[in-house]
Specification:
By secondary structure, the protein is α/β, with parallel strands linked by helices. The chain has ten helices and 16 strands. The protein is globular and about 50 Å long.
Length: about 325
């Protein structure tokens, strides 16, 4: 029904739906830096149904990481895609390690031995013999480390364990280093109505890299379901007090972002869209290389996000108007 709205994953030429599904939330509870880093309790059966619903609605791109639930997200995705692996394109990430029993992330490792070990572990959890897209999941590495990491990733391509790779980073300077390598095809970075990324989009476009967009709904803020009285629990990453979560402070929606959303909501909801569908449409309107990956916990959320593909992109006039309202142009 919605499967004809597609994108190419940069140089790899792998074709995917223009909308992906982010699998952070379905990893369930886990801890990072001593604080909850998941999205509260989840129902694995509902997660499996949601993934299969996404496939039925023309979504074939799924983004996960070994960090999400300390492996649990990958396990759920592997279960959901059993017998359907050839219908899906899987992206997963490496660098964090932890204890799957205590659901705690304990640090990072990007040594050559560890990268291949992590890849093999992800392959096992995903119940597959290859990963389509393998992403570095750590920002703080030096120039020399980039060369080492990329060399390992190139060897994993040669071995057939991965098809292509990239980096999950908002740093254009970092993306430049990865883009020099033959089989780098994607950069995953933050992009949403609140946080534009013109330099990264320009770089990806000029270097034939797909732009995979995390936080396309600003951690759910752009769904429009929150108001000034909303309070998220402490077992939710948005309510856990992480300094790097900009949209919520101790579980409460930011007044600044609430005002921003109110100012552009009329445009986002044009033609009968929901706020979430409009936020995805804004991303598609920014560039033909963008692939937003909103998170989900339920079938209903997947259905709403999938319907955004039927509406398609915002027009240039609509995206320009939003830029003017938000004083970015």
């Amino acid at each position: 029904m919605t499967g004809k709205f597609t994108r190419k994953l940069g140089r790899s030429q792998i074709e995917v739906s223009a909308l992906g599904m982010g699998c952070w939330a379905i990893g369930g509870p886990f801890y990072y830096g001593g604080k909850p880093d998941g999205w509260g309790n989840i129902n694995d059966e509902e997660s499996v149904k949601a993934i299969r619903t996404a496939l039925d609605l023309g979504i074939n791109f799924f983004d996960t990481a070994d960090a999400y639930g300390v492996g649990h997200s990958e396990e759920v995705l592997g279960k959901a895609l059993a017998g359907k692996r050839n219908e899906a394109v899987i992206s997963t990430k490496f660098a964090h390690f932890g204890n799957s029993e205590t659901k705690t992330l304990n640090g990072t490792n990007i040594s050559p031995f560890y990268i291949e070990k992590a890849c093999d572990a992800s392959l096992k959890r995903l119940k597959t013999d290859y990963i389509d897209v393998y992403l570095l999941h750590e920002w703080n590495i030096g120039v020399a480390d980039v060369e080492i990491v990329c060399s390992v990733l190139e060897k994993l391509v040669e071995k057939g364990k991965i098809r292509t790779y990239g980096w999950s980073t908002d740093l254009v300077d970092g993306a430049v280093l990865f883009a020099r390598r033959k089989n780098c095809s994607v950069i995953q970075h933050c992009l949403n109505v609140f946080e534009d990324a013109p330099e990264m989009l320009k770089f990806c476009s000029e270097n034939n890299l797909a732009s995979i967009n995390r936080s396309p709904l600003a951690m759910g803020f752009l769904s429009g379901k929150f108001d000034k009285n909303s309070v998220l629990p402490q077992d939710d990453v948005r309510g856990a007090g992480h300094e790097w979560v900009p949209y919520f402070k101790d579980g409460r929606p930011s007044d600044e972002f609430m005002k921003m959303l109110d100012s552009v909501k009329e445009i986002l909801t044009s033609k009968g869209r929901t706020p979430a569908q409009g936020a995805l449409a804004w991303i598609w309107g920014k560039s033909e290389i963008t692939i937003p990956i909103p998170g989900f916990k339920t079938v209903k959320q997947v259905e709403e996000n999938a319907k955004a593909m039927e509406f398609g992109s915002l027009t240039k006039n609509e995206t320009d108007e939003i830029e003017l309202i938000l004083k970015r142009k």
